[in-house]
Amino acid sequence: MNRYMVQRLGYVLLGLITLSVVFPILLVVGTVVAQGAAAISWEFLTTMPHGGMKAGGILPAIVGTLLLTLGTAFAAIPVGVGGAIYLAEYARDTWLTRLIRLAIINLAGIPSVVYGLFGLGLFVLFLQFGTSILAGSLTLAIMTLPVIISAAEEALRSVPTEFRTVIISLGGTRWQSIRHVVLPQALPGIITGVILGLLRAAGETAPILFTVAAFYLPSLPQSPFDQTMALPYHLYVISTQVPGMPPHIQNGTALVLLALVLSMSVLATIIRSYFRRRRQW
Amino acid sequence: MSPEPKIRIESVSYAYDGKSALGNVTLDVPTNAITVFFGPAGSGKTTLLRLINRLNDLVEGTRMSGRILLDGQDIYAPGTDVTGLRRRVGMVFALPLPLPASIRENVLYGPRLAGLQERTRLEEILTRSLVQAALWDEVKDRLDEPASALSGGQQQRLCIARSLALEPEVLLLDEPTSGLDPISTGKVEESLFELKRNYTIIIVPHSIQQAARVADYAAFLLMGELIEDRAGTQIFTAPRERRTEDYVTGRFG
């Protein structure tokens, strides 16, 4: 076998491997669309469930997931981006910052159900927020922090050091170099990281299981201290806890969740490519 | 040479992570002239340059001893206004690094940071700086275009204009023409000849030829040591030290 054939074989092999990655995704999306599309209607998206959730819509679950994602964003973005700025721009390399980094990496590996239990202990019981949107959002925010911090720190570090040096050589301070140059340049990377983190939060079931999610609520939440239904948990409920559930409602719910998450992912891609074209180095 | 040096470097030693970068360098930099620091890579010339406006403060794990006097004042004395120092001692880097903004905003960035807001004064500074950097004629009709649209040579002159906008007393240039073609290099050098009437200039040149072209005063560094420093261009034609001769005649380095 000559080297050209080896190369060709290599291409084919790598192509097959790539396909094997894409195929399951297409299969999942295809199945959900094929079996769930029938359930999607204006009524399905905008009304309360009724008849033991076997009829009606999933409005409270959609609203709940949107609220939880928003709450997560409010809590996680300032802390995450602030932490990343500290780590990338200010922190000196000491045993303490190394410990912080190690902690962040390990936090990303903790199973989500553990975050759920932690949220139950800290927010629901100890801080007495009760099972509420507040407790759920904060739990999801903690779970999201490692993703946001890592992505934002990476984005900040990819801005060439020289930009900071230039500002400082012009009589600026370190904060002015961050505010005027580094942060704007790193923004697309930060936004992408934030959206990817929130996207994971929007789809999680375990962390909200003990902290906010309601099995069934006849009304929409009125305050941050209310419980709410949420799409991932609702999907779990109607798939395993309610006998005789019509499959098109299950798949329809899955489709809505999938559409929500994928559209956020697409948004992240658009933002990233838009800013990348404007980048100057 | 004027009797009072603008900058006096007194027994300066400097180390990164315990590795010596400069050993006991003593040198006077004359006022309103071009001084050249030259030597092979790793000779400490850029390090010495960056010590003069305290840019090395940003680097972790360094140790410095000795004094650097600007107009007789030790710039490393406790309580020194470092921001003020950096406004008096401007710096131009090897890579032209315009900020992601318009030509106008690039030039006026420093004065604005310093709190200057008066419109007419800013316009004056804009024009003067660009004229001094020999860029005015090429950009006067497109001051609000992004700086990234300029060519490499223009960007480097913009960076010089940006430093000049702060009306510094000293201008440090670290291989300012290393990325430029010969024509752009010529323009930058010409603007330096204009500038030395009013500014004290220190340049790390990107070649010995450039060193010889621009130097009023030259200092040869080798492995962190100052080997020889002399007025004019004798150092290139009739060096005293054997090691200087080896370097300028191209026997090593």
Verbal overview:
The complex is a heterodimer of chains A (281) and B (253). Chain A is an all-alpha fold and 281 residues long. Chain A has helices spanning 3-36, 42-46, 59-90, 95-107, 112-126, 133-157, 161-169, 174-203, 206-209, 231-240, 247-278, and strands spanning 49-50, 55-56. A two-stranded antiparallel sheet of chain A has the order 1-2. In chain A, a hairpin with a 4-residue loop joins strand 1 (49-50) and strand 2 (55-56). The two termini of chain A are 45 Å apart. Chain B is of the alpha/beta class. In chain B, helix 3 (103-113) runs parallel beside helix 6 (152-164) and helix 4 packs across helix 6 (152-164). The model of chain B has no long low-confidence stretch (mean pLDDT 88).
Write the layout of secondary structure elements.
The complex is a heterodimer of chains A (281) and B (253).
Chain A: H1 3-36, H2 42-46, E1 49-50, E2 55-56, H3 59-90, H4 95-107, H5 112-126, H6 133-157, H7 161-169, H8 174-203, H9 206-209, H10 231-240, H11 247-278
Chain B: E1 7-16, E2 19-29, E3 34-38, H1 45-51, E4 62-70, E5 73-74, H2 82-88, E6 89-92, H3 103-113, H4 119-132, H5 136-139, H6 152-164, E7 170-174, H7 182-195, E8 200-204, H8 208-214, E9 217-222, E10 225-231, H9 234-237, H10 242-248
Parallel strand pairs in B: 3-8, 3-9, 6-7, 7-8
Antiparallel strand pairs in B: 1-2, 1-4, 4-5, 9-10
How is the main sheet of chain B built?
A: 6 strands, mixed
Please name the two chains that share the biggest interface, counting residues whose Cβ lies under 8 Å from a Cβ on the partner chain: A-B, 22 and 26 residues
* CATH homologous superfamily title of chain A: MetI-like
Assembly type of the shown chains?
A: heterodimer
Any idea what the CATH superfamily of the domain at 7-97 and 169-248 in chain B is called?
P-loop containing nucleotide triphosphate hydrolases
Count of distinct strands of chain B: 10
Our Rg estimate of chain B from Cα atoms comes to 18 Å
Question: In terms of structural class, how would the helical and strand content of chain B be classed?
Answer: alpha/beta
CATH topology of the domain at 7-97 and 169-248 in chain B: Rossmann fold
Strand content of chain B: 25-35%
Strand order of the largest sheet of chain B: 6-7-8-3-9-10
What average pLDDT do the residues of chain A reach?
89
Per DSSP, the total helix count of chain A is 11
Q: Could you say what the CATH architecture of the domain at 7-97 and 169-248 in chain B is?
A: 3-Layer(aba) Sandwich
Q: What pattern of helices and strands is seen along the backbone of chain A?
A: HHEEHHHHHHHHH
Shape label of chain B: globular
Question: How much is the radius of gyration of chain A in Å?
Answer: 23 Å
Number of strands of chain A: 2
Element-by-element helix/strand order of chain B: EEEHEEHEHHHHEHEHEEHH
Shape of chain A: globular
Report how far apart the termini of chain A are. Answer: 45 Å
